[in-house]
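Q: Could you write out the predicted structure for this multi-component system? I'm mainly interested in how the pieces pack against one another.
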Amino acid sequence: MLFAYSTLFKFLRRLCIFCLVLVASSTLVFITLHSLPGERAEVMARYIFLGNVEISPSNEEIQLIKQKFDLDKSLLSQYRDWVTGILHGDLGRSYKSNRPVLEEITLRLPATFTLASVSVLISLLIGIPLGLLAAIRQNSILDYICSTGAIFGISIPNFWLALMLILTFSITLDITPVIGYSGASHLILPAITLGTSSAAVLMRLTRSSLLEVMRQDYIRTAKGKGLASRDILITHSLKNALIPIITMIGLEFGHLLGGTVIIETIFAWPGIGRLLIDSISARDIPVIQGCVLFITIMYMLLNFIVDSLYPMVDPRIGGSQFA
Amino acid sequence: MSLAAIFIALILFGCSNALADGTDQTLVVGEPWKMDGIDPALKSYNLNNFLVAEGLTAISPDFKIIPCIADSWETVGTDTWRFHLNNNAKFHDGSTLTADDVKYALDRSMEMNPDVVVSLNIKEINVVDSLTVDITTNTPDASLPARMAYGRAGIYKNNEQSDGSISTPICTGPFKFVSYDQASDTLVTAKNEDYRDGAPLLDEVTVKFGISDANSREMAIEKGELDFTTEPPMGSTERLQANADLNVTIHKLCQGYKLKFGSVAKAPYDDVMVRQAIAYAIDRKSIVDDILLGRGGVSDGNALTPGLEWRNNDIKGYSYDTEKAKELLETAGWKDTDGDGIVDKDGKPFKITLYTWPERPALPLIEQAVQSELKEIGIEAEVRVIDNSVIKEHSGEWGMIWVSGGDTCMMIPDPSYYLEKQFLSTDSTNDYGYKNSEVDELLLKARSTFDQDERYDLYKQVQEIVYDNDCAQVPIAYHYLCVVMKKDVKGYIPNPAHHDYCLSTGMYRE
């Protein structure tokens, strides 16, 4: 009973923090957007109504836009309108497309989610086994190859890698398409591009945290007991080395869900990142706010999931998953 | 968010793998800019370029205003134009277009899009009978028929959903709207079999909007994923021309690069000799040859592009002449008194800042070229590349100059649109302090002069004053459009009046 109460309390506390972060992040974005250089109505005129960023709109047009979207109102009342909308489940409409913001975001969700998941999967499949190998065979040729490879993986700019992959696989070998979003074949190159750098990070992390664990006394004990080295590796070492790895995966996944503008631009991939950036250029505030809200919620959910996973991996952290 | 979800997503994704096969008369277009939405009140411009929407009038490749939905038009009184609609104009759903539809569409677009309000200058629209509509302008306006050819003045049917938006536009053009996918910004259109001037030759056109990366467009058309695209990377023209599967052409547009002074009402540019010195200092040929790499032409001193009926072709302009530029500066009182290579006057050295924006790749390079050319005549310029809606905030700085591109003189096919914005002192877009009462008088008179030849003559006088006498702005070069097509795409007729391009009804696959 006591346990149940304390869990409930911790859950509520977590929920409060959740809400606080949401309020803080949306407020911050609101203020930042209003302090951007360039008059908002003028930028909107160029990007949305003239549809040409290089033509100067006239003052009449700027005035009409201000009236139409209530931009003359004070910052506070604009913010209040937005919050009222949210509380009624209404994220507003995009200035640019005249469609509900929620629809704009949910439209991009499948693309964003698929790309993020597959990229993380690729980085897991490459990063963890190689990290393991490198740790077991520390200071061997294999270790050096893996570590050097990881440095390349981290340092190669991903737009360059993307172009090289397109050149090799799309143009020269003619296996994959270059741009678009209409099938698994379109997914391969962007996922590999994004997966590469996180695989490299993951590989290095796996290697170092495993090496750390393997220096611990209990591993020496286990060895002393005569346990098979595979058992030591899987049950004793890897499990204990997992905590930082899980944290890393969670962060990486959150980062990918928030969008990867450059890769989305190169492959013309309809993800959240491009939506956000395009909306920022056009000062399409309802969409920007919606995206930020979405990204914040995703990050917090992921954090929550990662935190809940800790006790499963390491019982010493037990019971504190809502802390 | 576990593995199960990942796999479900993967499976769903795998199932949707349907690649359209490159069958006969279809065309896939890769468009650099985004469309982001389909409601014709906001997007009829895109629908117009891809031949779905039409306006009351249209503009031919030789810049003539031609009948479109309206057969003919005439003035009624001083401030009203009467348009007679084509009785064969039918919407894509088979219904006949009436004057009520014209009123509905224009009223709705003006309600939703402030740019339409300002660009069309319409006070009210009155339905006379089912095929006649009267449009009254705020002031007597000879340019209204031309303004009705503006892409944003497209006519569409009332097809509103319960929330007042339109997601399946019904228009009158040679191609019908089929579908629009918001996530991938892709528009699909199909042949309108019942088009009044005969059906187009292509069966289906797919437009992929928002392929903003030039390298991606280039590789996609080389790979065969696109059949038609524009503006590959600047340096790729020759390489693509060598590709036997592709047809690379360069077309004139009504766009240019120019220098615009931050203020011609304040020092140092309130002195026409200083402005002329800068105009003489620019080596336009080297900018066109070395930076635009063939995708442009040297300006003769008139920013209006050659070929326009209302263009003054006798502008003398300012050829590249460093000596003359130095002389002019010296006459204007700018001399290098302290021997540091920079001219000065009353103890103030001629140090200025050039501003440009990054979206147009040639601009920062032109900015640097101008910087070194100004150095030759003793003007030290700092270069800055920033967001162009922010540049305006810097226009008050001493000696500030805009290095500007995408300067379109044909958004609306009438001289009033561009010349008023640039040179009419009462136009709010004129933000650099240019005021010449003679020019003002000519421009206002021309706007309400209904005899076309007389009008054009007035506009030609304006050009002579602003470019040759006043040197109010310094045109540098014209921008040309690079179009890359598959070899078997035929029948494309470029229309320089469109911004940047529009498909032509005669296009087909061989």
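A: Regarding packing and overall arrangement: Chain A is about 75% helix and 0% strand.
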